[in-house]
Amino acid sequence: MQMQRTDKPGFDRISLASRALKAAVATRAKAEADQSQPICVYGICEKLGVSVRFNNINMEGMYQRSAQPRIHLSARRPLPRRAFNCAHELGHHVFGHGSSIDELREDAKENPWNDPKEFLADTFAGFLMMPTMGLRRAFRARGWAAAAASPDQMFAVACEFGIGYETLLTHLSLGVKIIPYARAKILKRTGPRAIRAGLLGRLVSEPLIVADRHRVATTIDAEVGTLVLMPGGTDAEGSALVREGDVEAGRVFRAVRPGIVRAAAEDWASFVRIAPKEYVGLAQFRHLEEDPDE
Fold first, then answer.
1. 75: how many CB neighbours lie within 10 A of its CB?
2. Are residues 83 and 121 in the same domain?
3. What torsion, rounded to 10 degrees, do the Cα atoms 14, 177, 33, 44 define?
4. Domain boundary, last residue among 164, 190, 216
5. Model's pTM, two decimal places?
6. Edge-to-edge strands of the sheet including 219-223?
7. Cα–Cα distance between 28 and 294 in angstroms, integer?
8. Residue 67: what pLDDT?
9. Rounded distance between C-alpha atoms, residue 188 and residue 127, angstroms
10. Beta strands in the chain (DSSP E)
11. What's the DSSP call for residue 49?
């Protein structure tokens, strides 16, 4: 398989960003996805006929162009990073690029790729995962002004769209320009570790997903070991999701085994889809205990 990587500085980033935005909208339409709601990027790939596989490799992602196109992702990366990397690799597919191996960075818009193909794929990923209408709806529904949102509030919105906290801040400031760049820099001084500690009242090393009552997606993607903060009064069916306790912001659960669990409160419900930790296999089987592809 021939890998393509070029170095072509001096390209028109504004023109490419516009092209990426149009392609992201068209991709959602082709996959029959809502233009404003959060998406499962693996489901989008499946609808477009692109196979996605997680591998135990120390890289970000790879796009394999063939009669049966494939995206390979590292199972070692955090869940939000894997999703964004998948969207980036899907961008290579959408734009007809050749097979490529990528080393992605969540701050890519602040340190743009010199290669226009990489810039195009990365910008496409941002617009695909975080549509402007959806972001505005997310803040408005919660009664928050994006430009004045706190780190905790930004973290909640990032969780709704399934992307990283800093990725959201970069996209809000440099991608869709909803908040000033200076504000994004200030918010980045408070990292996810401090945000988790503030929400849970203790320091934790495990990843945390916040799912509040304003979340419109009907599913929450987690993996074994993930903590999930849901609305107060939430109960979970089965034994894959174990209640850890209540905090001011809601009720905390821990994902302890793979499966799909329904969690519900009086006026809220969602399905939590739990994959094995650092799951290796086809994305479509990630919530099963065994991978039929193995």
1. 19
2. yes
3. 60
4. 190
5. 0.90
6. 219-223, 268-275, 259-265, 235-236
7. 31
8. 92
9. 21
10. 51-55, 61-64, 70-74, 100-102, 208-210, 219-223, 227-230, 235-236, 241-247, 250-255, 259-265, 268-275, 281-282
11. T
| Coarse DSSP helix, strand, coil percentages of the chain, rounded to the nearest 5 percent | 35, 20, 40
pLDDT given for residue 1 in this prediction: 42
CA distance 64 to 78: 22
Q: Is the dihedral of CA 159, 161, 163, 167 positive or negative?
A: negative
Distance CA 73, CA 77 (A): 9
Q: How many domains does the chain have?
A: 3
Beta bridge partners of 54: 73, 281
Q: Are residues 119 and 136 in the same domain?
A: no
84 and 95 share a domain? yes
| Predicted pLDDT of residue 58 | 85
Beta-bridge mates of residue 261:
272
* CATH classification of the domain holding 264: 2.60.40
- Average pLDDT per block of 10 residues along the chain, 294 residues long: 48 92 98 97 98 93 93 96 96 89 50 78 96 97 97 98 97 96 97 97 97 94 98 95 97 97 95 97 86 47
